[in-house]
Amino acid sequence: MAPNWRHALRLSSDTWDPSHRFQTSWLLTPWVLFAVRAVFALYAFATLFFIIGWQASGHDGHDIHDVHKSFSYFTVLCYWAQAIYFLLASVNTFTYAHPSTPTLLPRFPPLFRALYALLYTTVTTFPFLVSLAFWSVLYPSIPSPTFNTPFSLYTNTSQHALNALFALFETLATRSAPAPWIHLLWSLMLLAMYCGLAYVTYAVKGYYVYVFLDPRPRLDVEGVNVGGVGK
Question: Which residues cross the membrane (predicted)?
Fold first, then answer.
């Protein structure tokens, strides 16, 4: 039983990705896969830092407090996870594609490899949850002026539409193996921890991260914050 659990957790050094699934694609060459992942990482980090700079500089009624609040939003946390994953994945793919460079990921300690596998699972599942919740629950209740500014249109498109496209690419275009069932448990634990964080935020800061977390009836949505970006 123990070896099976170790394999499911990606902790067994002798069974770790022997056919280089994390570094290859059935559709693209390793160099093209590296380029795509690098572009995704660059775009995601550029978007995140642009949002921070825009809000901190006081544009569109934002201020530095909006930057602080953004780290309580599941949307933003998931987008940071995608940015970090694509950075690591692009470096990992580059070391595989470059003939004189040892592949990076198998050289890391087992715990790091296990966390990388779990990170892959989250960035190929959570973005779909983010997009589904936004377009089906939040978007219908948003005042129409929310998308009238280029900033809001750009950020919401990046974090609530392109995020799912990035995840879809990783799911369909790469050779990464399906996640082990144990990752379902870890993913549910992460979601439960986030819900706890959301209610801790309310207890400490006095506001709900998302309006649908508020158990009280909501009669209006004036000034609603959309995924930590829109106002």
Answer: 31-52, 73-94, 114-139, 181-202
